[in-house]
Give the backbone structure.
Amino acid sequence: MKMEKDSRAQMPRVTGEIKLDVTPNRAAVFVDGSFIGYVAEFNGLGLGLLVEPGKSKITITLPEYQTFETDIDLVANQKSTIKTALVKGGAAEGISPE
């Protein structure tokens, strides 16, 4: 199954920028629940995820890995980096399933 970018998503005029330093870089990236691309598209020189200033929920997911979620609050023209390695498997290590 191929995921398609949300056609309703529009790029804001004033932005903050998020660099994604995530492995594996084929993971899908969602901003506030909308699929916007894959990690590799937002990692590298001149590449970054442009978001509206304010709070955004960033979700990074890949089958067979634990989903990574974080909230970020950027001001206009602020740059930030999200760096993580997705953990293979189900429940987080050290947490017993109920």
